Amino acid sequence: MSHSASPPTRRVIDVMELLARTDRPLTASEIATALSLARATVTAVLTELAAAGWVRRDRERRFGPGPALAALRPADPEIRESAVRADLRALAQAAGCGVTLSKIEGTTLTVVAKEYAPEARVVPGLAVGQSIPLTFPAGAAVMPWRGEAERAAWLAGDAARREGPALLRFVRAHGCAVFRPDSDDAGLVDVLADLLGAVGAELVQPDLRVRVLRQLGRLTARPYREAEFLGVRPLPVGYLSAPVFVDGAAPYELQLGPLRSAVGPAERRNYVEAIRQGAQALSASLGQ
Question: Could you tell me which residue ranges the HTH iclR-type domain spans (predicted)?
Answer without folding.
Answer: 6-67
